[in-house]
Design brief:
Elements lengths: L3 E7 H10 L7 E7 L5 E4 L1 H17 L5 E9 L3 E8 L29 H11 L3 E7 L8 E9 L11 E4 L3
Parallel strand pairs: 1-8, 2-4
Antiparallel strand pairs: 1-3, 4-5, 5-7, 6-7
Helix pairs in contact: 1-2, 2-3
Length: about 170
């Protein structure tokens, strides 16, 4: 992850931009919930939009018979939390440990490269963020689906060492 372009941006616009890129069948309802009082964040807008759009696309693909995709955002003083939740088929428990392994895919051969989640994880880590995934693929254990949580600092105080980072302050 080289060359993050950190600039002041609007977190709600990032969420909206990620959903705009998405092609959603009519059988899927999309819900956007935002609880931001302060929408200013210092992130690489384009990279975070791509991360969210990729995760949202995974969620849509996990709901072949329809369902609900919920994207929500909330904040604390120095962090933002983005949650992407689907009511899809879920990820089998035996696959959970491999999700961030490059070239591992739960999709049928020819349908997934296995690079989406590792790439998303790398971008989140480059922003000094955290990413976690919870999923249930067993209807007997309750509602199926997957929840991805991303926690990002509102502003990177110190760029990651050894990385090329540009901080653009337009003010």
């Amino acid at each position: 992850m080289h060359g993050l372009k950190l600039r002041k941006t609007d977190i709600l616009r990032i969420l909206e931009d990620s959903l705009q890129a998405l092609s959603v069948p009519q059988s899927i309802q999309v819900v956007l919930r935002s609880e931001f009082r302060d929408k200013d964040v210092w992130l690489d807008h384009i990279r975070i939009v791509k991360v969210l759009a990729d995760l949202e696309q995974n969620a849509v693909e996990a709901m072949p018979r329809g369902g609900t995709l919920t994207v929500s955002g909330e904040e604390s003083a120095d962090r933002i939390l983005i949650t992407i939740r689907d009511t899809g088929t879920g990820i089998p428990e035996e696959s959970m440990d491999e999700l961030f392994t490059p070239f591992f895919s739960t999709k049928p051969v020819g349908e997934g490269t296995g690079l989406g989640l590792p790439s998303a994880y790398g971008t989140v880590k480059a922003h000094r963020g955290e990413m976690s995934i919870e999923s249930n693929a067993r209807p007997e254990d309750g509602p199926t689906g997957t929840t991805v949580r991303i926690s990002l600092p509102r502003r990177l105080i110190q760029p990651p060492s050894g990385k090329n980072t540009m901080i653009l302050d337009d003010e």
